[in-house]
Structure formats: structure tokens, C-alpha cells
Write a structure and sequence with these properties.
By secondary structure, the protein is of the alpha+beta class. It has three domains: 146 residues, Adenine-n6-DNA-methyltransferase TaqI, Chain A, domain 2, CATH 3.90.220; 101 residues; 154 residues, Adenine-n6-DNA-methyltransferase TaqI, Chain A, domain 2, CATH 3.90.220.20. It has a four-stranded antiparallel sheet. A four-stranded mixed sheet has the order 4-3-8-5. A four-stranded antiparallel sheet has the order 14-23-19-21. A hairpin with a 3-residue loop joins strand 24 and strand 25. Helix 6 runs antiparallel to helix 13. The longest helix is centred in the middle third of the chain and has 45 residues. It is elongated and about 80 Å long. The two termini are 22 Å apart.
């Protein structure tokens, strides 16, 4: 081995094995249709284009990047470069293409497989090294041409390059198929959680419990204002906020589904202001719910319960507080606020301008709720917590599996460019002699 590489391999800078950022010949007719590739056409995981337009060469000759059939494209601007955007140019109209200027183009010389080069550039370590060499112009960071010219690649003979590419495509296709299955799991878990909440709040989840306890289906049709005390938030002046303190003000961004995110841009008020606005202090088991967000996106209406450990919290404007009465358990009401039936009622009253959506107090207070007796509420909370905990564990395992798949891709690529993925030419020769 030389430089830690198998016998027959060498190391070469890209400037010696590729033509970097070539241009189409000037004599080509401007009327020739060519493929056009915006950045959106470049994939982050596959060498194929997602789509290509056709444009006359004269329209895109100036001010655009040039490439031809078999060229390797590599995004040079952040964050597209870090995300791995790249492609091998294939299926081009007349074998020619033009595209966004935010691409480096590498034209492999004789003896260099373009897909081998593409897979080399797809490595995280290569993109990380490229990022370390960023230059900035007009507020944008880019990979300089000098870095591409000097970047060195481990290079086996061409037949071995092709065997490596073939093996990579098979292995990475399996990893990608696994990743695609993992991507679907969060959506399935979201539907599962909604189904659990719907079944729980309708009494279907505890139908067996009622049978075992010889209880009738006992639902009280009521409204949230009839079973809880509603208070809207106070319009604290931003000039009174500080970045640290004892009394934190809960704003829209702090209220996430079923949890408070107290570390999201926290702001605090003084002891004097806290005393003056005591009415807006939150207590353990209060429920906070956000009332403003992006119109039509339904990215608000999030509800979270206040815990004993949350400290001294005060309610800002456009965040409401619900304090449960004797008929309803806080966690049961919290789960009801996550259901599709509540959210449909809540967003039916949405107002606001083009960007900002708002829901008024009646969108919460007048919302209908089917109230079960306290014993069944308690059983519902117990069962829902167990099922949601199960879904959380599955989600955590899915996240670990996805991270493993991502790491596996890079591990496979690293092995490939160390000469460990397929037999080398030397080993094949020995096998042939045997």
C-alpha cells in the first residue's frame, strides 16, 4: 500500500483529471435547444435530475453555467452544497445544458468514471472540507474554484472505478429504501396520536372500562367556558423585558403542542411589574394556548399544561389561560384541545391579514366538549399517557434508525474510497492466476 491505498491506486488533484467549469464552443448556433437546470432540478441524494427544461442556447449562453452529457455538477453555494446537491448530466437535449451559476462543473478526462467522481463529492467529509474553504461575496458563502482545483481524490484504475460505482449503487439503493420507509413513520405516528385522542375523548377508548364497572355511557354536552376559567394574556411592553430574571413571560413561541418551550427566546419582567400583573400569573395545572400564527397554516392553537417545576410564569397577549373547574381534569382538557374536533371549531373563526391569522376568545370559550365523569377521565388520562409514551418511544427509535442510515451511507462511501468495498485489480489478478 502507498499512502494507505491499495496497490495500483493513486491520488490526483481534480485539476489533473477533469476540466473545471468548461464553456460551450462559441461556434455553436444560438438556436440549438439545450437542457436548462435550475438548482431545484438537482437532487440531494441521487445523481439524476428531477426535471429539465429546454431553452434556446442563445437565451442561456450568457450569465449561466455550461455543462454537457457526462459532466458532474456540484452545488457551490450554502446551504445547497452542505446538503449534497449534485448530479451527473445525462439525458440532455443535444447533449448540452446550461443552468444556475451556483454550480461547479467537472468534466472528467479519459479514464475517469463520472459516477465515481460524483460519489466522491457526495461524502460529508468532502463537503465539510469545502465549507472550511468558503469565500463570501454579496452576503453569500460559496466554494471557490481554487478549492475544487486542489481537491485530491483517491483514484483506482477505470475498471475498478466502475465496479465500485456498481457496488455503491446497489448498497445505497438498499439504504435509501430503508430511509424512505423511516421517513413515513412520523406521519403514521401523528395519525396514530390523533386517533388515540379522538377515541379517548369520545369514550371509545374506555368502552371496556365502562362495561367492567357497569357504567352507562354518560356524556355531558357542554362548552369549555362552562367547565374552566378563561383569561386572555396581558399586553406587556417589550421595553420592560429583560433577558434574564425570575419572572418569565410566556409568549406565542413558547407554547408548543403539549409542552412549553421555555428556552425559546425567553424574556423576563421585574418584580414590580410581576406584582402589578398578578392576575396573569400562571399556576400549576393551568393550560396555556396560543391564539396567533400564520394564516391558513394552522400552526398555532397549541396547548400546554403548566407544571410545578415551571417556576414563575406570566401570560403575554395572544396567549390564553384555562384553569379547570371541578368537573374536568387538566390533562383530559389538554388532550381534548389536541383533537381534530376542537381544532376545526378553533380555526373556523380565524381572522387576520394575508400573513397573520388570529382566533378570538370565543374560538376557545365557546368550543363544545363532550365531558365524561371524573373516574373515566382519570382512566382515559392513564391510557392515553401509556399510548403516547409508546408512540414517543417508537419515534425515538425511528430517529436513531434514520441517523444510523445516514451514517451508514457515509461509512459505505468512506470504505469505497479507501479501496475496501470491492476486490482490487491486484486481488482479482491473483484470483485469476489461482
Amino acid at each position: 500500500m502507498r499512502n494507505g491505498l491499495p496497490e495500483g491506486w493513486t491520488i490526483a488533484p481534480l485539476r489533473e483529471i477533469t476540466e473545471i467549469n468548461p464553456r460551450h464552443p462559441k461556434e455553436l448556433d444560438d438556436s440549438i435547444p439545450v437542457a436548462f437546470a435550475p438548482m431545484a432540478a438537482i437532487s440531494e441524494s441521487k445523481p439524476e435530475f428531477q426535471f429539465l427544461e429546454e431553452r434556446p442556447l442563445g437565451k442561456v449562453r450568457k450569465g449561466f453555467t455550461h455543462f454537457a452529457e457526462g459532466d458532474v455538477l456540484f452545488a457551490k453555494i450554502t446551504p445547497c452544497m452542505e446538503n449534497g446537491k449534485g448530479a451527473v448530466a445525462t439525458g440532455l437535449c443535444n447533449g448540452l445544458g446550461c443552468g444556475t451559476t451556483e454550480l461547479h462543473v467537472l468534466r472528467p478526462l479519459e479514464g475517469i468514471d463520472p459516477h465515481y467522481l460524483y460519489r466522491f463529492l457526495a461524502q460529508t467529509r468532502v463537503r465539510r472540507k469545502a465549507k472550511e474553504n468558503f469565500t463570501s461575496t454579496a452576503g453569500q458563502a460559496r466554494v471557490p474554484t481554487k478549492f475544487i482545483e486542489q481537491l485530491e481524490i483517491p483514484l483506482p484504475p477505470l475498471p475498478e472505478q466502475r465496479r465500485i460505482v456498481s457496488k455503491l449503487e446497489k448498497l445505497l439503493a438498499k439504504v435509501d429504501a430503508c430511509r424512505q420507509r423511516l421517513v413515513k413513520i412520523p406521519a403514521l405516528l401523528k395519525r396514530f396520536r390523533q386517533s388515540v385522542l379522538a377515541a379517548a375523548c369520545s369514550g371509545r377508548l374506555t368502552a371496556d372500562w365502562r362495561d367492567q364497572n357497569n357504567l352507562a355511557d354518560d356524556f355531558e354536552q357542554t362548552t369549555i367556558e362552562a367547565i374552566s376559567d378563561y383569561v386572555g394574556g396581558f399586553a406587556y411592553k417589550s421595553s420592560t423585558f429583560s433577558k434574564a430574571g425570575k419572572h418569565q413571560v410566556i409568549r406565542i413561541g413558547n407554547v408548543r403542542p403539549v409542552s412549553l418551550k421555555l428556552d425559546a427566546s425567553p424574556v423576563f419582567i421585574s418584580e414590580d411589574i410581576a406584582q402589578q400583573t398578578e392576575r396573569f400569573r400562571l399556576r400549576p395545572n393551568d393550560i396555556a394556548i396560543s391564539m396567533t400564527g400564520t394564516k391558513y397554516k394552522q400552526d398555532y392553537g397549541c396547548a400546554a399544561i403548566i407544571r410545578d417545576s415551571d417556576g414563575s410564569l406570566f401570560l403575554n397577549q395572544r396567549v390564553a389561560r384555562l384553569r379547570c373547574g371541578e368537573k374536568v381534569m387538566p390533562k383530559f382538557l389538554l388532550y381534548w384541545l389536541q383533537t381534530d374536533s376542537f381544532r376545526r371549531f378553533f380555526f373556523a373563526g380565524e381572522t387576520g391579514n394575508v400573513n397573520q391569522g388570529n382566533v378570538g376568545a370565543d374560538g376557545i370559550r365557546k368550543a363544545p366538549i363532550e365531558l365524561l365523569q371524573l373516574g373515566e377521565q382519570q382512566e382515559i388520562v392513564r391510557r392515553v399517557e401509556a399510548l403516547l409514551a409508546l408512540s414517543d418511544r417508537i419515534e425515538a427509535r425511528c430517529a436513531r434508525a434514520k441517523a444510523h442510515a445516514d451514517n451508514l451511507t457515509q461509512s459505505i462511501l468512506a470504505r469505497a474510497f479507501r479501496g475496501e468495498l470491492v476486490p482490487t485489480e491486484t486481488k482479482l489478478a491473483h484470483l485469476g492466476q489461482g
